[in-house]
């Protein structure tokens, strides 16, 4: 070791320990129906429109519970995404039903002539 190098005292000490024993996660946990609402909303969009109604209704209820006690739940975004997917699925289902009604009404008024 030369005189120009700083002395080497070994490795630095490890950082202080984490917060063990302080209770649950900061800000509470996930809402118990959050994942279910998201899955129902996605299924409503992809394959089964009426399931979107359930996601919409359950999402509204869960959002009210989260807003009533904001420190208890951390997954408001997941619940809101499932609720919005449920809204879109329900609206698309209603538009599809209206389109079928119009299609059948127009098809019923058209007369086919055979000569």
Description of the structure:
This protein has helices spanning 34-46, 49-68, 76-109. It has 115 residues and is mainly alpha-helical. It has a domain at 34-102. The model has no long low-confidence stretch (mean pLDDT 84). Residues 18-27 have a biased composition (Gly residues). It comes from Nocardioides kongjuensis. Keywords: Membrane, Transmembrane, Transmembrane helix.
Average predicted confidence as pLDDT: 84
Percent helix, as a range, is: 55-70%
| Alpha-carbon distance between the two ends | 111 Å
Low-confidence stretches: none
**Helices and strands: which structural class?**
mainly alpha
Number of strands: 0
| Rg from alpha-carbon coordinates | 29 Å
The major sheet is characterized as:
none
Count helical runs: 3
What pattern of helices and strands is seen along the backbone? HHH
Tell the overall outline.
Answer: elongated
Protein name: DUF4190 domain-containing protein
Keywords: Membrane, Transmembrane, Transmembrane helix
Region (Disordered): 1-27
Biased composition (Gly residues): 18-27
């Amino acid at each position: 070791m030369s005189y120009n190098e700083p002395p080497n005292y070994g490795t630095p000490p490890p950082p202080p320990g984490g917060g063990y024993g302080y209770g649950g996660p900061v800000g509470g946990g996930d809402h118990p129906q959050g994942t279910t609402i998201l899955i129902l909303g996605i299924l409503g969009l992809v394959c089964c429109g009426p399931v979107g109604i359930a996601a919409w209704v359950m999402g509204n209820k869960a959002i009210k519970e989260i807003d009533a006690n904001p420190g208890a739940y951390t997954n408001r975004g997941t619940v809101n995404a499932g609720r919005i997917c449920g809204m879109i699925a329900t609206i698309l289902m209603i538009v599809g039903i209206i389109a079928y009604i119009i299609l059948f009404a127009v098809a019923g008024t058209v007369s086919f002539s055979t000569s």
